[in-house]
Amino acid sequence: MESYRFVVFGKVQGVYYRKFVAQKLRRLGVQGYVRNLPDGTVEVVVRATEDDVGPIEQILYEGSPLSEVERVEMESLEEDDLIYEGFEIRY
Q1: Which of 19, 52, 57, 72 is the most buried (most CB within 10 A)?
Q2: Residue 50 domain boundaries
């Protein structure tokens, strides 16, 4: 398992984006969290296999019906010492 950080840009706050992402990623079986950032973006950190990256990006681009995703940036995390129990929405 690897750790990845995604930052989602666009109209992604106040449009049920986090709830949508959390539901989809729980079904995919990855662990991690989604949260709003102060600059209006959304951060998604996951522990997943490399094979899951494509489906995760697809979910992030799809977004909730009211969201408008402009772009998604991804980076691999060298160290991630957080312990995840499922996938959660953080506030």
Answers
A1: 72
A2: 2-90
